[in-house]
């Protein structure tokens, strides 16, 4: 029993929800630092303020993935999570630009990102659930297209409100401009409408159908259903103790070596992960490990080889992206516009231009979504991803050498190809390598290798810039570009199973 091929309209219907998700994500990425600085954040505080967002994804996505694997009801398996997440994102977008203080804005970023993750994670598994192997590249490419379209509108919206509708993009010190408020309200409507479109126009296969499809797929490959190795509790205990010990040493080193306080995040994260492993080891010893928490811990250490190698690629790719999202506004306003005064016209003009630059790379990503499957037919999915990552890395590095801000759209072409491929190629390769019954949880676990580099970037980038680059944000983009090129090199170790 083979999964039927879906029509282009069906693929688009199941992907339109990502349009709304990316509107919200684009507004967050292009405007969160602007809101933080407007409310009094120093440039050196931006990374630490952003860290709540990836930490939220680290916790939420594996949990939602596991839960959605086990869910079945009137709305299906994944669609209930689309709906709940969309409602929460809508409310968060309505509230965030009216934040009365910096701590409130940081809290709203945390809530907004958690809500986006609740909606986003099941969409990744959705493609694996509904499409046969040969259509998955097209399915993830369709998501990339809608991500690009949504982000173009979201990133450029404050600029359009200023230049097309004559709204003032400045406000009194400590007040978020009206253009940002309006942009967030439009985004709230967009995500709710787009996600509801997918919920109402797409149906899911039943658990029985999914089991039959998976059995047929494995039989076609001539392999038996994969069985997860039963690791002894002592392994988890040993790994847990090592993680706690390393985390404690990192934490102690902050004071002893007078490191930046952001490094505490790394130590705390390692300790928390180690404690999770120790709890699981204890549950396994007592035979009380038949629960979602223990199952996720077991799945984490039973990842397919392809997934482990893709994890390295994801690490370097997302370190680069997070550097770009945090520091592009600061880099362009300071390096190209010559100001860090958030109340000045030059700063706000530069911040609006960054929004437009983000729109450019997302627009390119939408076009690249159609080109990447064609390129992959000639050089494979692995080759297409390597090429895209190299283009993105070169684009970020070139910010240092382009002095005229009007020309900064040129490197965004390379960034757009990288972004489109990052959103599609690794997931297409991964979906062919993991069991269908665990598509959700493995897509969620895969998010760990997106979050870890973001936490690392938030922990050390500010310190690295202060210690080695005089606090100049432009160097964060150069470091991001180098990281993206390293991701392309790491792709050489990945074997595409289709």
TrEMBL record:
Key words of the record: Membrane, Plasmid, Transmembrane, Transmembrane helix, Transport
Pfam family, one: MFS_1
Any one GO molecular function term: transmembrane transporter activity
One cellular component (GO) term of this entry: membrane
Localization terms from the record: Membrane
Lipid bilayer topology: Multi-pass membrane protein
Protein name as annotated: MFS transporter
Organism per entry: Niveispirillum cyanobacteriorum
């Amino acid at each position: 029993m083979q999964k039927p091929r879906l029509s282009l309209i069906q693929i688009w219907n199941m992907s339109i929800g990502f349009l709304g998700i990316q509107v919200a994500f684009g507004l967050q990425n292009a405007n969160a630092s602007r809101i933080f600085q407007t409310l009094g954040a120093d440039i050196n505080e931006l990374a630490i303020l952003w860290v709540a967002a990836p930490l939220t994804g680290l916790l939420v996505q594996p949990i939602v993935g596991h839960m959605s694997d086990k869910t079945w009801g009137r709305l299906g398996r994944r669609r209930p999570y689309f709906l709940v997440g969309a409602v929460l994102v809508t409310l968060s977008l309505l509230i965030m630009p009216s934040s009365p203080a910096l701590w409130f804005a940081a809290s709203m970023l945390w809530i907004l990102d958690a809500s986006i993750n609740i909606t986003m994670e099941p969409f990744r598994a959705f493609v694996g659930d509904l499409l046969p192997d040969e259509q998955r590249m097209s399915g993830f490419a369709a998501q990339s297209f809608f991500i690009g379209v949504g982000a173009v509108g979201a990133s450029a919206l404050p600029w359009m409100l200023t230049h097309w509708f004559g709204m003032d993009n400045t406000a009194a010190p400590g007040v978020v401009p009206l253009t940002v408020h309006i942009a967030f309200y439009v985004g709230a409507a967009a995500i709710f409408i787009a996600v509801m479109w997918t919920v109402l126009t797409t149906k899911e296969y039943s658990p029985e159908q999914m089991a039959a499809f998976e059995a047929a797929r494995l039989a076609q490959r001539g392999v038996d259903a994969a069985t997860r190795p039963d690791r002894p509790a002592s392994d988890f205990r040993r790994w847990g103790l090592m993680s706690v010990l390393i985390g404690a040493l990192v934490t102690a080193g902050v004071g002893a070596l007078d490191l930046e306080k952001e490094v505490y995040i790394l130590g705390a994260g390692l300790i928390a992960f180690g404690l999770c492993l120790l709890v699981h080891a204890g549950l396994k010893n007592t035979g009380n490990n038949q629960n979602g928490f223990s199952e996720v811990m077991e799945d984490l250490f039973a990842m397919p080889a392809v997934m482990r190698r893709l994890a390295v690629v994801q690490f370097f790719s997302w370190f680069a992206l997070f550097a770009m999202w945090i520091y592009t506004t600061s880099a362009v306003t300071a390096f190209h516009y010559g100001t860090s005064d958030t109340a000045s016209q030059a700063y706000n003009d530069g911040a609006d231009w960054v929004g437009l630059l983000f729109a450019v790379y997302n627009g390119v990503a939408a076009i690249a979504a159609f080109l990447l499957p064609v390129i992959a037919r000639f050089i494979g999915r692995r080759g297409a991803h390597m090429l895209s990552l190299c283009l993105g890395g070169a684009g970020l590095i070139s910010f240092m050498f382009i002095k005229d801000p009007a020309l900064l759209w040129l490197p965004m072409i390379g960034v757009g190809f990288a972004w489109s491929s990052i959103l599609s190629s690794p997931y297409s390769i991964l979906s062919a390598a993991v069991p269908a019954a665990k598509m959700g949880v493995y897509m969620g676990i895969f998010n760990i290798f997106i979050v870890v580099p973001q936490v690392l970037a938030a922990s050390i980038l500010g310190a690295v810039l202060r210690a080695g680059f005089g606090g100049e944000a432009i160097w964060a983009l150069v470091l991001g570009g180098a990281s993206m090129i390293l991701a392309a090199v790491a792709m050489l170790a990945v074997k595409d199973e289709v």
